[in-house]
Amino acid sequence: MLTSNDFTGLINRRFWNNFFPIPATSNLQLGMKTPDFALPDITNGQLIRLSQFRGDRPVILAFTRIFTEKQYCPFCYPHIKALNEHYEEFVQRGVEVLMITSTDERQSKIVVKDLGLKMPLLSDPSCGIFGLYQVGQALGAPLPAQFVLDQKGILKYKHLFSFLDHNASIKTLLQVIDPLATQTV
């Protein structure tokens, strides 16, 4: 795992704003249209608006927990790696994966490079989108969560963090998207 004893950058405004635990309570219900947002894509250097995928393809929103460019959540790090390893599999099914992090642009650029991310990494250092989707927070960072949206932006699946079930597995995400996905061969 890519962690070190270097905690530089950990204690910042984001850390204090997310220090006290707030449970994941997302009130987004299956069948609802999800809120639109725009965030910078650090991987590809563009601004991504969620609504640009509506009418085009399903989307997986993968909210992840990265403390700094050197400190990863032990539950999220393997999930980030697995999503990245299976990214082409999602794309071949006609699905976009948008990973959302609370690290700032500088930290996010290092994460993209160090992990060799292929999928878009959207930077939300203010944690506004994490708050909009009510994924919760604890000990300095928002909690992870996954939301699967169909081509119309309708919520078809959500997984909120718990200590018993940290992140939705790749197998689960593939099972959820298969009925939504357009096969491209």
- The amount of beta strand, in percent, is 15-25%
CATH fold name, please?
Answer: Glutaredoxin
Q: Output the structural class.
A: alpha+beta
| Cα-atom radius of gyration | 15 Å
Strand count, sense and closure of the main sheet?
Answer: 5 strands, mixed
C-alpha termini separation: 34 Å
- Do you know the CATH architecture? 3-Layer(aba) Sandwich
Shape: globular
Tally of strands:
11
Tally of structural domains: 1
CATH class: Alpha Beta
Averaging pLDDT over every residue, what do you get?
86
Order of neighbouring strands in the sheet with most strands: 7-6-3-10-11
Domain Thioredoxin: 28-182
InterPro entries: AhpC/TSA, Thioredoxin-like_sf, Thioredoxin_domain, Tpx_Peroxidase_subfamily
Keywords: Antioxidant, Oxidoreductase, Peroxidase, Redox-active center
GO molecular function: peroxidase activity
